[in-house]
Amino acid sequence: MKSIKFFCLALACCLFSGCESLRFYQQAIFGQGELLLRGTPTNSVISDPATSAQLRARLQTIQSMLQFAEDELQLVVADRYQRYVHLERDYVVWNVFAAPPLSMLSEQWCYPLIGCAPYRGFFDEADARAFAARYEQNGFDTYVGGVAAYSTLGWFDDPLLSSFVFYSEPALANLLFHELAHSEVWLNGDVAFNESFASFVGAKGARTWLSAVADDDDTKRYARWRRGQAEWARFKTFVLAAKADLANLYQQQSGGRDERMRQRDELRAHWQDCYSANIGHLGNGRFDALMGERFNNALLLSLGTYADWVSAFAQLFLEVNEDWPKFYDEVEALTKLSAAHRLEQLQSLHRRGLLQQQNAHRTDHQNSQQVQCQAFADHILD
Description:
single chain, mainly alpha, three-stranded antiparallel beta sheet, globular
């Protein structure tokens, strides 16, 4: 059945594609096909005497996580993650983001079955960088990011990959639950909705998993992961402020192109300097690579797609008394609404969540550290 689905999908891709798209889908078909053909049943890997003790223990832990996903999070696992593939590379795919130099609006690419998304994925890093280079030649900002895992939304039985199996346990649980959530609810063409929903399920599921199995070592690992998550949240808040500042500049529409490019470069330098001045609150160098040459419109747009509505889904989960099946039903109901009505509902959930946090006087001392970087777009136009 899975092989029939695979060839039907391949045929659909070829029938509805131009030459450039045909080359893209060819590499996607061969890349996915390789994963399907190379997978070894997890139980066989575990029982193989040649398997390292480290890999065997990790695969057994993953089996426990998947059972937990079914029993406690009510996620459908079925035959997903029942095979293991060792990759000869760090990432399974590389995503390319592209944006005009004076617009905070990402390029969009549309795909059969899943709708449109602001990225193009390649199984070979060289192909991804060549694709990005063509956009750069036309003056676009680009960002190429490696991806350790992705979901085929139930079309295929996604395998376990060497690119992620040795993540820390909290990060691994987060990833597995995140990807399983994509098969639970998917809204064609709405990346922010899909990724925010899966991000909430992944993070909440990881916390629940750790609380159920934690010993002292697990508690320490979870605390380290939470600190890392808090660092990332602060950094995301910082770069989204930079994104808003640049978007404000692009909307001004004053001056010629050369002058506006100069203003853009000055504004980017302002935020890079601000990052350096506040590096102690922004990861102590953890995000230096993102704030260097890669700091551009495409990078900023890539960072804005995964957490836009996490707070809304968190509030919805509370309002259904943390009942997972009911929560999934409510999320599915949101996908049936018109885009305008769905946005209204998500905004309302977000506001209620903020109000509840304020009423509870919940304080996160790490997140309360303020990074003082003033918006600069208005000043450079004076």
